[in-house]
Design brief:
Helix content is 4%, strand content 44%. By secondary structure, the chain is mainly beta. It has a single domain (5-341), classed as TolB, C-terminal domain (Neuraminidase, 6 Propeller).
């Protein structure tokens, strides 16, 4: 199926600096993440939570070289053919079955550069990035694609450039991004880098003032995920100390969580929020041959290391969460494993 997107009436364009928008060091390359993972899992300070495998799913698609997939709202989502006139969005259900491919085109755009994608309720897929016209001028945007065949909604956001996106359980669109003019970060100090929109593109909230963020890279990288009643943002940089974790509740309340104790070369490569209020992330630290699954139970808790089931192989990345289940890449890029806390009789 081919889906054509139509822009909204905001036709403003700006020039986005290559150093900020196309810094490939900030992007999660799926194949490169797999290549640098080492086969040893750290074992210090483990929690007693009893995590068990629910089921495995095999994907009949080689995900090598794609953007790091995200599991959200019942689907694994990624994209290919990026930085072309019409990128393709791929998605897979919990059995590994590939769903119809979505193709994004934007009138008057000569090239579309996607930065992130997320599944939403009722099969909607949200993507964000930058659309460039023939002269090379770029405008930040997000787009909603309807899996049932409806046309996409494209909302241009200039001078705001979103680099991360997620769809909340109530259907609202959340993004992380910066305002950029004249090739510089021009976000007003009091303006939020996290922004909430309704499905028409109207901004309904702005959170985390730019003045509280030390570096643009903390916004350009990182991860946004959602669960029932909340949205989680792990800031960049994705490696080493200095990153933060925030959660945003449906009523607009913002919680800044305790700092995550990361090694100098430790990298966070996955984030998932479950509907019971837990937050999980996965890390790797090649210099110490360390792989960890960390969790925290609410803003008053502390980050703790979890013990993974024996069926999880030495190579794992947390794609996201669904309900009370965590969804992992498990040992190879064609295998998804779903785990959850085992219930005692």
């Amino acid at each position: 199926m081919i889906y054509t997107a139509y822009q909204n009436e905001n036709r403003c364009f700006g020039r986005l600096p290559i150093a900020m928008s196309r810094n490939h060091a900030l992007r999660c390359s799926f194949s490169s993440l797999l290549l640098c993972v080492l086969p040893l899992i750290g074992s210090g300070g483990l929690q007693g939570r009893d995590l068990a495998v629910v089921h495995d799913a095999e994907l009949r698609y080689d995900l090598g070289g794609v953007h790091l997939p995200v599991w959200s709202n019942g689907a694994l989502v990624t994209f290919v053919s990026n930085r072309t006139i019409s990128p393709e969005i791929l998605s897979f259900d919990n059995g590994g079955r590939q769903l119809p491919t979505l193709r994004l085109t934007i009138p008057d755009s000569d090239m579309i550069d996607l930065d992130d994608a997320s599944g939403g309720p009722n099969g909607v897929v949200a993507v964000c990035g930058t659309a460039y016209d023939r002269s090379g001028r770029g405008s930040g945007f997000f787009a909603l694609l309807n899996a049932n065949g409806g046309m996409a909604t494209v909302v241009r956001l200039f001078p705001y450039y979103p680099s991360r996106i997620t769809v909340a359980s109530d259907g609202s669109i959340w993004t992380a991004g910066l305002e950029v003019t004249n090739s510089k970060d021009s976000t007003p100090p009091a303006s939020g880098v996290i922004r909430r929109f309704d499905s028409t593109g109207k901004m309904t909230g702005s959170f985390v003032p730019r003045s509280t963020i030390a570096s643009p890279q903390m916004v350009l990288s990182g991860m946004l995920r959602s669960a029932r009643g909340r949205v989680g943002w792990y800031t960049g940089p994705i490696g080493g100390p200095g990153s933060q974790y925030y959660e945003f509740l449906a009523d607009g309340m913002v919680h800044k969580y305790p700092a995550i104790a990361l090694g100098v070369t430790e990298v966070v490569n996955g984030l998932g929020l479950t509907d019971d209020g837990m937050t999980f992330l996965t890390t790797r630290e090649n210099s110490k041959h360390l792989r960890r699954l960390l969790s925290i139970n609410g803003v008053g808790g502390q980050w703790e290391q979890e013990r993974l089931p024996s069926q999880i192989g030495p190579i794992f990345i947390l794609y996201g969460a669904s309900g009370s289940s965590l969804v992992f890449l498990n040992n190879d890029r064609s295998r998804m494993t779903f785990i959850k806390e085992a219930k005692t009789p």
